From TrEMBL:
InterPro entries: FAD/NAD-bd_sf, FAD/NAD-binding_dom. Belongs to the FAD-dependent oxidoreductase family. The keyword Iron-sulfur does not apply. It holds the Pfam family Pyr_redox_2. Residues 4-291 form the FAD/NAD(P)-binding domain. Keywords: FAD, Flavoprotein, Oxidoreductase. The keyword Oxidoreductase applies. GO terms for cellular component: cytoplasm. This is FAD/NAD(P)-binding domain-containing protein. One of its GO terms (molecular function) is flavin adenine dinucleotide binding.
Length: 374
């Protein structure tokens, strides 16, 4: 009888693992992929998708079924819904199905947790927080607001904030007032590429305001947004785009398997990416955020998890998970600039543009659909 692998999450990590397993075990394995969304979402390009006319929906959204249908129909099942509970001792998970809100209990031989993280601000379109229709609506609505606004605040100066401000500056730096609100005295949490990124933003006429941590934002009936800073100061703008904070999607996981940080409860894993204290449960991507959340890290973790799941199914010992050979950090700053580093070596702006900023990796979407990513 075929063994069952349940994968929770149909984004970068989960779909990668599904392809890796199905390509080798199309006949002797059942993979059940659980996703809130019917579509795979290339969220790395969401920062450019809010600029009207720049990115088509079909460039960054593809049906998950089209990715799985290349395999034997008996080897996979796609469930559109959300995990609401997990019993690692009993080896089962509960999933509420989007179609009729019914609950289905699924037993597994191996379980992969790849449910990622969502934006702390529910209205932000940088991550998939709801259904395919919800994400499309959020992106389109934000693009319309961007087009109409004369003054825009970007709240938060992490990598997402830098990329959002860069896209706005590139398109509207000469016609709209773009301000990046930075909580501290340096952007990017003081990373070594911060001065280069700040310089590139200034070239695009983006104003950086330091020591301006956003405490709250409230939209008034006239459409204006009042932003209150941590120091008590209030600012008024046409549009505020929050980019701060991620919330791991771990609510369905028993607390004993999660980190103690009440504000950022990630899954605890060992060097094999196996959940600590659980058997036959693995995790990868933003739900782990170890050593940090990032695309290249997620790719490597997904590959390691797939290999260790395969080993466990065959009764072999797992191998230590491998990360990227060098820490790569790159921020696109608009459609012509960038700032980044490879380890401690700074990368030229043109190099970051060529590797990332030119397309924001949209060409890689095809690999997640045809399986060549794994």
């Amino acid at each position: 009888m075929a063994k069952t692998v349940v994968i929770l999450g149909g984004s970068l990590g989960g779909l990668h693992v599904a392809h890796a397993l199905l390509k080798k075990h199309d006949k002797d394995l059942k993979v059940i992929l659980v996703s809130k969304n019917t579509h795979f979402f290339w969220n790395l390009a969401s920062v450019r998708a809010i600029i009207p006319g720049q990115i088509k929906d079909e460039d960054i959204f593809r049906p998950l079924e089209s990715a799985l249908s290349r395999y034997s129909a008996t080897s996979w099942e796609l469930l559109i819904g959300a995990a609401t509970a997990a019993d690692f001792d009993g080896k089962s998970v509960e999933v509420v199905l989007a179609a009729d809100n019914s609950t289905r209990t699924i037993s597994y031989d191996q379980l992969v947790l790849a449910t990622g993280a969502r934006c702390a601000s529910p209205e932000a379109p940088w991550k998939a927080a709801g259904s395919y229709e919800d994400i499309i609506h959020s992106l389109h609505q934000t693009a319309a607001q961007v087009q109409d606004a004369e003054e825009i605040f970007v709240g938060g100066a992490g990598s997402t904030g830098i990329e959002v401000a860069g896209e706005l500056g590139y398109e509207y730096g000469k016609t709209k007032a773009i301000t990046l609100l930075c909580a501290g005295d340096r952007i990017l949490n003081g990373d070594s590429v911060a001065p280069a990124a700040a310089n590139e933003l200034r070239k695009l006429n983006v104003t950086i305001r330091y020591d301006a941590r956003v405490q709250s934002a409230k939209t008034h009936p006239d459409g204006k947004t009042e932003v209150t800073l941590a120091n008590g100061e209030t600012l008024t703008t046409d549009l505020h785009l929050p980019t701060t904070g991620l919330v791991p999607n771990t609510e369905y996981i028993p607390a004993r398997y999660l980190s103690a940080d009440a504000n950022y409860r990630t899954v605890l894993v060992d060097e094999y990416l196996q959940v600590q204290g659980a058997q036959d449960v693995w995790a990868c991507g933003d739900i782990v955020s170890k050593p940090r959340a990032g695309f290249f890290i997620t790719q490597k973790q997904a590959a390691s998890v797939a290999k260790n799941v395969e080993a466990a199914l065959a009764g072999r010992e797992p191998t230590v998970a491998k990360g990227p050979p060098v820490d790569i950090f790159a921020c696109a700053v608009g459609r012509g600039r960038g700032a980044g580093r490879m380890g401690s070596i700074k990368l030229p702006s043109f190099g970051v543009w060529l590797a990332k900023g030119r397309t924001l990796g949209v060409a890689m979407v095809a690999g997640y659909i045809d399986g060549s990513v794994a």
